[in-house]
Write a structure and sequence with these properties.
Length: about 60
């Protein structure tokens, strides 16, 4: 994990502590952030008509 400031926790400034906590939060929530971004992108693409996410599709079975 990336940390900002000195290794001794007692010497960290308030700003360095805030940056370290923010980096930690982003690090553990990166999967959720990706899901939200992809969901939003899919919604916008469907809204403008570029893709269709839902609807009726017919799947034909192939028999041999």
């Amino acid at each position: 994990m990336v940390k900002i400031g000195p290794k001794d926790e007692t010497q960290l400034t308030r700003t360095q502590k805030l940056i370290n906590k923010t980096l930690w939060l982003i690090g553990i929530s990166h999967n959720a952030i990706i899901v939200v971004i992809c969901g939003y992108t899919g919604y916008k693409l469907e809204h403008i008509g570029a893709i269709k996410l839902t609807g009726k599709y017919h799947v034909h079975a192939f028999y041999t």
